[in-house]
Amino acid sequence: MRKNHIWLTLFATSFMSFMQLLDASIVNVAIPSLTKDLNVPMNRAEWIVSVYLILICMLLLFWGRMADQIGYIKIFQTGTIFFTLGSLICALSPSLSILLLGRIVQGFGASMSMATNIGIIAMIFPMHLRGRAYGINSIIAQLGNISGPGLGGLILGFLSWHWIFILNIPIGIIVYIYGRFMFPKEPHRETTITYDWSGLATYAVAIGTFFISIFMGQDIGFNNKAVLGTFIVSLAMWAIFVYVEKHVATPLIDLKIFKIPRLTLSLISALLVFSIGYYANVIMPFYLTNYRALGTALTGLIMMAIPLANVIAAPIAGYFTDKYNATVVSLCNLFVYAVPLIALTFIAGKENLIFFTLLISLLGIGNGGFQNNPMIMGYAPKEYQGIAGSLAALFRNIGMGIGVSLATTSLYYGMGLQAHKTVNYYPSHNPNWFLSGMHFAYITALIILIIAIILVSFIRQLDKERRTKKQ
């Protein structure tokens, strides 16, 4: 495969990641329009967001396992077809039920593409270029992850919510056609495919009930008996899943992969960092639009500083990763990430907007510079590359789901502490309650970041010990 073709292939796979991650966040902005146009209550419309994320997390491991048997490219291409078809269904939806069907088809396809795109990069790029390739992939994917509120507001300012889904269709078609002719041919694989149906079933129920408990908890409170019961079911299914995987001949995931300390710690640290990344998506629109009384267009422009900074930071970090070490680069950028988080725990709400924009741009630099993909794939043995790629996507999506819940819960809990009562709305008559809640939320984000720094520092120590043994 020619050098210019591998870079084009990288952009083709990465843009699918962009659209799929964008669809996980941009729909939040469209919920008010959707509820009005489809004449449905807000709590039912929230499932438009939830069902997509839940289905992706339920199927990622399955497709990662299948990719090792069938081939990364075959599954990626099939996922592109399903995601594009699902986008078409969503764009033409006349009712909530049809829209949810479209989101299910989208999630099915997105899980296939997300589980394989990192594996494709590892397959086509030589080792000395992988850091840069992972960095570019991270930029484009993170743009989708972070730019949802700003881009969504811009689209809805001029067009209807249908265009959020229509835009996916030409990109999906172009990526599929490109892949049909330009993706490399994979080596022949065994035609006998083994399925771990018991593992898939227990895992799917475990991850599904986990997310359902999170989304229910946000709505009705985490101390509700139904929420606690659903969470207990999830814990029980996780225990059964582990037991099943240890006793089947061909498990959905070989749990031995988690015996690789650096890989496991890299996955957990990625989950934590992605959780922090969603705080801005949840809190900043409230702060800028409600507390600072800015227009939606200006709010969108200010928030776009985060993904733009991410674009600048990720390739630079990827370059240094190729020259040095992904863990060292990631650790340095986590300390950069700490600067705006600390500042946001003390912010007074009267800061100059230019200063504030520069401050939150450091969130994008810290996030973009965190080299989670090179760390995860670099510590995974060759036989685990497929499942490691799907685990990277899984932990990223779990982090997104947890981040939304933590940001919302800590924000409202912090407001409640200030108000001495339960608050689950923006306090228009007491804006200082919101500022207190925002401070509390970013304290929790800072604690999560400190845990991530500790984990990555430990990975670095393990790297040093390994190099010492080799010498």
Name of the CATH homologous superfamily of the largest domain: MFS general substrate transporter like domains
Q: What CATH architecture of the largest domain do you see?
A: Up-down Bundle
**Share of residues in helices:** over 70%
Write down the overall mean pLDDT.
81
- CATH C-level of the largest domain: Mainly Alpha
- Rg (C-alpha, Å): 22 Å
Instruction: Write down the CATH topology of the largest domain.
Output: Growth Hormone, Chain: A
Number of helices: 19
Our count of domains comes out at 3
Q: Could you list the spans in which at least 5 consecutive residues all have pLDDT below 50?
A: none
Shape: globular
Largest sheet: none
Number of strands: 0
How large is the share of residues in beta strands? under 5%
Q: Terminal Cα separation, in Å?
A: 36 Å
Which secondary-structure class do the elements indicate? mainly alpha
Keywords: Membrane, Transmembrane, Transmembrane helix, Transport
Membrane topology: Multi-pass membrane protein
Subcellular location: Cell membrane
Protein name: MFS transporter
